[in-house]
Amino acid sequence: RPVDESFCARCGENLRQAEKQIRKAHETQLSEIGRMVDRMELTDALLALNNMLAEPVHPGLDELRLTAKAMIAEVKLERQRQDEQAEAIGQEARRLIEGFQYDAATQELTRIPAPLRDRTVQELLTTAHERAQEVVTLKRAVRQRQGTSFADRMQHLERLLTIQPADAQVHRWATQLRDQILQAARKQLK
Fold first, then answer.
1. Cβ atoms within 10 Å, residue 11
2. Is residue 52 scored above 60 in pLDDT?
3. What's the rounded Cα separation, in Å, for the pair 27 and 43?
4. How many CB atoms neighbour CB 26 within 10 A?
5. Is this model's pTM higher than 0.85 or not?
């Protein structure tokens, strides 16, 4: 259409009003994409920006298209930064899990925003959380001596020594149980 015309010569549509509506829709879309970035939904934000740029070019949207292109560059850079940080956190969490520090590994992994957790990070988080819970459950079972056989307590302590080998309390319990078993055996031998 000629620049100075306000209405479409074919259908009579108010071209300035239509342009304002298109611009408003794109501004709204860019705002929503900005909120996606704030929520760390970076992959979704990149997809939405690329879809926006794939739409037919409208002369009144040049400024918004430039903004979208700049956002793509920023989001890609942020995604790269987040991926590098997640990798470093994952390595630290692996080290903590190998060192039997499950609560610390869980805390470390939860620093990665949920939308950026890949399958590997989620598996590490699940492992660390489950092991931490298992330690708590086993320690509770060992503390509750009544109604628990030597064999069950021994099994609990054996597992605790496997998943918490440096825990001083677990070693004390194992020593106490060993002493109780020895005393019982001595009584049987008399």
1. 7
2. yes
3. 20
4. 20
5. no
Residue found under tokens 């890949």: 118
Write the single-letter amino acid at 158.
E
Q: Check the CA dihedral 76-82-85-90 and report its sign.
A: negative
Give 88's DSSP letter: H
Task: Name the token pair of 135.
Answer: 């330690």
- Which stretch of DSSP H or E encloses residue 52? helix 42-54
- Residue 28 tokens read as 């709204």
pLDDT of residue 101 exceeding 90: yes
Q: How far apart are CA 143 and CA 157, in angstroms?
A: 11
**Contact, 120 vs 94, CB < 8 A?**
no
C-alpha–C-alpha distance, residues 94 and 97, integer Å: 5
The set of long-range contacts for 91-100, using a CB threshold of 8 Å and a minimum separation of 24, is 93/121, 93/124, 93/125, 93/128, 94/124, 96/128, 97/124, 97/127, 97/128, 97/131, 100/163, 100/164, 100/165, 100/166, 100/167
Q: What number is the average pLDDT over the span 34-39?
A: 93
Crossing angle for the helix pair 62-98 and 102-109, to the nearest 10 degrees:
180
